[in-house]
Amino acid sequence: MSKMDNSRRLFIGAGAAATAGLVIAPGVTLLDLAHARPADEAASSAKRWGMLIDSSKCATGCNDCVAACGKENGVASTGHPETDPQWIRKVELKEIKTGTSHSLPMMCQHCAEPPCVDVCPTGASFKRADGIVLVDRHICIGCRYCMMACPYKARSFVHEEHEDQNPDVPRGKGCVESCTLCVHRIDRDQQPACVESCKEGAMLFGDLNDPNSEISKRIATYATTQVRADLGLNTGVRYQGI
Amino acid sequence: MSNPAKRRSVLGWLGAALAAVLLAGALPAGAHDEHGDHKVIAKGDKCVEDAAYMRRNHMKLLKHQRDETMHKGIRTTQYSLKNCIECHANPKTGSVASSKEDFCMGCHTYAAVKLDCFECHSTKPKAAGGTLHPIVAPSVQPEGTDKQSSLSGKMRWQMQANLASLNGGEGVK
Ligand code: SF4
Ligand code: SF4
């Protein structure tokens, strides 16, 4: 497997063009393009991808992120709502005494210490070097231990056969799945589909390991929350305003 | 041209299939296989490795690439399934595995080797233009398979039908 030189060269060419594009159009926030990882380079623990969700900006009743996720990943209703997979869902929170309400999207929190990975008997559940928690469907036997272990109910079992998948997002009957942070998009320097779709700007995606990233600066400045921080899972998805 | 469907003994048929696979190694793209009706469908005239090597080893290359991509995020295209599908999709069905005419299913049906890649992976290249998503893009229905509601169902049916035809001399309906 040593014939990778060409694709690397091509990719570097494309990367250079993108960087040049940055200079011509300074108004566009394409900062991450400068850090493009070549296609033949493995994801590294120098990065830790995460997300910050500002629930004070998230609009009650809005479902844009859920719809965008469904469209990007091919997660559509099968007509059986009880067993339909959910990669991301909207949650409404209400403080009973004051009546204050919050709306927020909830999905796999990409834990640094993921219980789903701890319990998986096959090694199908794993955490990629850059912090993204995934299921390798080639290995998953569909035992659903991880679904039981996840404190956030983030995982779903696929009960139905599928066709016409997004070629970037293979999925089918018999495996467990959950939010991948749109890993296929991240690997080509795009934002997760939900983040891109949010008109309120309530979702921020970035590198938690880089102190100069927007997400790290916000987390350093404002009070942010990990849901069920008491479990000590060190989640990659953080919330603001709850 | 001898028709392998007439052969009754399983052993004889296996021999024929093996011979077909070995002989077909030298075929240029677009040629017809003399032991079956299936056609080598490819956009270019050169594969990422030579055809004989690919016939024996494509599964090893795919499996290696699968682990590299899944676990390390390495997304080189040379041996990626997506890239194979881009090049080998049948212009008629838009797919590599929706019917026996298609690239993957053609050979796998003939050799009676079940493949389950497409229980999860799309059999079609990404819709042109980049904005279309597979769930909204109109899907091309191969002829004569509308009774099977899912892809894996279709594949199983085709495999069984083909085996039946080989054993009993009956043509696939
Ligand atoms: S949120 Fe659940 S599925 Fe996601 S990493 Fe944590 S335990 Fe695993
Ligand atoms: S369902 Fe799959 S990923 Fe989950 S624990 Fe079982 S084998 Fe692991």
Protein model, in words:
The complex is a heterodimer of chains A (242) and B (173). Chain A has helices at 5-24, 64-73, 115-119, 145-149, 183-186, 193-197, 214-221, and strands at residues 49-54, 88-94, 101-107, 125-127, 133-135, 156-157, 176-177, 203-207, 224-225, 237-240. By secondary structure, chain A is α+β, with helices and mostly antiparallel strands. In chain A, strand 4 (125-127) and strand 5 (133-135) form a beta hairpin. Chain A is globular. The termini of chain A are far apart. Residues 1-34 of chain A have low confidence and may be disordered. Chain B is built from five helices and no strands. In chain B, helix 4 (103-111) packs across helix 5. Chain B has one domain. By secondary structure, chain B is mostly helical. Chain A binds chain B through residues 1, 3-4, 6-8, 37, 39-43, 70-72, 74, 76, 126, 128-130, 134, 136-138, 161-168, 170-175, 183, 187-188, and chain B through 64, 66, 68, 70-79, 82, 85, 119-126, 133-137, 139, 150-153.
Task: Please report the distance between the alpha carbons of the first and last residues of chain A.
Answer: 50 Å
> Which sequence of strands runs across the widest sheet of chain A?
8-1-10-9
Report the radius of gyration of chain B as a whole number of Å: 17 Å
Largest sheet of chain B: none
Query: Total strand count of chain B, please?
Result: 0
Distance between the termini of chain B: 21 Å
Hey, which two chains have the biggest interface?
A: A-B, 42 and 33 residues
Overall body shape of chain B: globular
- What percentage of residues of chain B falls in helices of 4 or more residues? 40-55%
